Amino acid sequence: MVDNKCDMARVNRIWNHPAYRESLHNIEKLEQERIFCGHNAQHLLDTARLAYIENLELNLGISKEMIYGAALLHDIGRGLQYTEGIPHHEGGVKLAAPILKDCGFTDVESEEILEAISGHRHNSVKVKRNLAGILYRADKGSRCCFSCPSQAQCNWSAEKKNMYLTV
């Protein structure tokens, strides 16, 4: 049996980092009345798991810590978007940089994760076979539009909504 606890040490530091926990809690409070997709821990973990599966299927060789680190942090700027009008991918980079440093990610690793966070809303990374590309696809793929009670009010285009299972 493989001990995944060890290879996820830095991810667990993110998960338990005071600034991360505070930001996540703040987002949950701000989205309490939201009828559309939320940006809670479940969404972040779903995104991480989908990205990791794609990484394995495409044999990209991206480490689990890099994928989970990027996924857990990709929407952390939502609170700044709601309270200060900062686009959440920009706010996410601002909040994630010191967390990554505190959690032991190297400058090179942090730069790659921050680039993925920054690009996770840009269509230009959609087809890339790197961390930014799999984060983009997993983030969009994690949404269950087909069973969403607010689907009719959602402003996502028909092409963007997840109405079918894909493999």
Description of the structure:
The chain is mostly helical and 167 residues long. It is built from nine helices and no strands. The chain has helices spanning 4-7, 9-16, 18-30, 41-57, 64-73, 78-84, 88-102, 107-119, 131-141. The radius of gyration is 15 Å and the shape is globular. The two termini are 28 Å apart.
Helices and strands in order:
Blueprint: H1 4-7, H2 9-16, H3 18-30, H4 41-57, H5 64-73, H6 78-84, H7 88-102, H8 107-119, H9 131-141
Helix pairs in contact: 2-5, 4-5, 4-9, 5-8, 6-7, 7-8, 8-9
Share of helical residues: 55-70%
Q: What structural category characterises the helix and strand content?
A: mainly alpha
How would you characterize the largest beta sheet? none
* Uncertain stretches of 5 or more adjacent residues: none
Secondary-structure element series: HHHHHHHHH
Silhouette: globular
> How many beta-strand elements?
0
Strand content: under 5%
Computed over alpha carbons, the radius of gyration is 15 Å
Mean pLDDT: 88
Per DSSP, the total helix count is 9
The end-to-end distance, rounded to whole angstroms, is: 28 Å
